[in-house]
What we know:
mainly alpha
Amino acid sequence: xxxxxxxxxxxxxxxxxxxxxxxxxxxxxxxxxxxxxxxxxxxxxxxxxxxxxxxxxxxxxxxxxxxxxxxxxxxxxxxxxxxxxxxxxxxxxxxxxxxxxxxxxxxxxxxxxxxxxxxxxxxxxxxxxxxxxxxxxxxxxxxxxxxxxxxxxxxxxxxxxxxxxxxxx
Length: 169
């Protein structure tokens, strides 16, 4: 349901110079895989699928026991102090920061996904332990994908490894 939020972060794994064609080469396979997984269920019963995946998100009530700041700051009337629009806004800011500052590597992509979804879940009306398992899993992927001494994409190919020796005086 939420994976579409991470689609712009695909720019982090494309080789520079990032063009629309480069983004398409990165994003189309991801969309094809998502469609292959989702379409059989959607075509089986389209109305039920839309109700369960899309409509339900709008009608689900606030859960004060959620593992989010909304649950923590709910007042005595058990109502959230602000709406979930804040979660989308903060996630948007985190996405822009990730696109601006994260390394143009698979590790940077995984780190951006983790930060994006952490910001989104921690400010949403429903967030439980399994939501954060995804965030921690993305962090683990970022660590596993990080190659020590490797720089981000530079002019269409990986830059040479960073030397451990200090520069000559």
